[in-house]
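Recall the central idea of this unit: under ordinary conditions, the amino acid sequence of a chain determines the structure it adopts. In this exercise we apply that idea directly, starting from the sequence alone.
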Amino acid sequence: MNTIRHTIRRHEIYHFNIRLSDCIYRKSLKTDSPSRSREYVQAILDYLNKSESKGKLVTKEELNQYIEALIVNRANELSRIGKAVTNPLSGTNNTYMERWFKETDKQRYTKYQIENCSYPVSQQTIPSFPTFKQWITSLITSTAGKQATCASTTDIAKYDDESDEWVITNHELYDALALPTLYSEKLDYLSNELQIHAQNLTNAYKDGDNIAFKLELESMCNRFNIRQPTPAPHLNPLPKSTAPLFEEMEEEVFDLWKDYSKTKRTSHEGKFRDLKEAFRGLHLDEITFETIEENWHFLCRMPKLSGGQELGFNPENDKIKNEEKTEIQRANRWELLLNGDLDNINPKYLFSSSTLGDTKEVLNIVFFQAVRKSYISHNPMDKAVLKVPKNREAGRAPLPKDKATLIVKHCFANLSSPYSWPILLMAYHGMRNKEVATLRKSQIVTDTETSIIYIQILSGKTKNAKRKVPIHKRILEKGFMDYVDTKSMDDELFELNSNQLTNRFALFRKEFEIPNNDEAGNQLVLYSFRHNVISCFGDISDEYKYKLIGHGAKTVTTGYTELNLEKAQRYINLVSYM
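Accordingly, the structure predicted from this sequence is:
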């Protein structure tokens, strides 16, 4: 006889056993399989032991929204699969074919090796794998047939180690979704209806009846109010420039300083190398006075290299040569500074006002030389106002709601601009400059259990940078996945870098009259969108806020594997600018 903790058996069926305050509640697991029952219980135990419940009461509106999200995620995924089937030449079809090819690549290669070997091989050793049609047919069925989790278990109960039992912590949510109520019946009904549509789609696809497939797909989208995303326009390429990149001026300006004293020459060369990170990747004719002023805010708060150990921008390998070490320090320092991960710097690490004056002198020399050599026609330093602020330890603040809305509306109205999607991802998900600029198509993932589409951020300079972030519903509605589907799996999504995004924000500052600081003296920069996102989360726990935005706080548990995607998607969808 198989004995499984926290279960009892009735008529060979396992039931989950929960102790309420004064009684025992039992819920059928709807399986007679000991292994399956053990899996169910262990999965819940593992998850509950990692989390804490807030015991927050849930409104009927929230329950309705939650149930809708559970179903619509799957319906949306079925709609995308339907597009892949009905439009075999589309980028969406290419995306699914890439997934199929990757999943079956090992079997395919093994089969190729066996079939092309020089000695006889048993047919039993040749692996088999589904054709694309078989695979996508199975995907239709499995997507609709996924069990919609009634609620995140952390919202309902927690495990009591002392009594070795489960204790209900949120009776309202438990009663609404775990017991036979209107809400649980509605969830079952919608799930069954979706499975019927999926079965009809599968039958039509197997029969090669394209008309029946399209009609069934249209019917499903209409019934579940699935709006087809607005087709994303093709991006306009970034304008080509013949002017040198800022970093390519190094040899020229160093040559200008060859007759300086050793001390002054070394000082100027060091400051130019500092500036290289601020303007790296920008052509000289792309750098406006607004760009220079935007970067000046960061330069005034940039710490000395001597603070690398304490502030966390030293290279991990401490055995490298000094020259290579300082270059890595400079790159890491600028990335952390740009991403807002170097706030509240100890004043002892900040450059003096006279040192910043020398930095300004180096900028003047670079652009004077650029005009002199006809790389640019106008010197942007002539209009740049570069002052050292009194409070250089000031943090960042959210952008004013009206200014943030102007930027978001501009980006949605100009999706053909190469800057719009990256800035919208920052505005709705709180992503850092570099996280967006280096995104690849392979990092846009559809969760196999929930059909939630999320961004998988693989690395970063802080402990919590690695995470999963569900994509905001408005981004999906505006056709982001259509844009993603135009790329190959290993392609970068955007052909720009972090500094180009900062450069674009400098133009927004001018166009929408965004001040440099709020009334309290905090900076208003592109990074401020992270604060806008956090403010939209309201009173959710800091743990979840920081996991979603990848905050570097030491109090936050690291890693993205513990994140509940369904709950995370609800929080992300709270972000609004309209």
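The mean pLDDT is 81.
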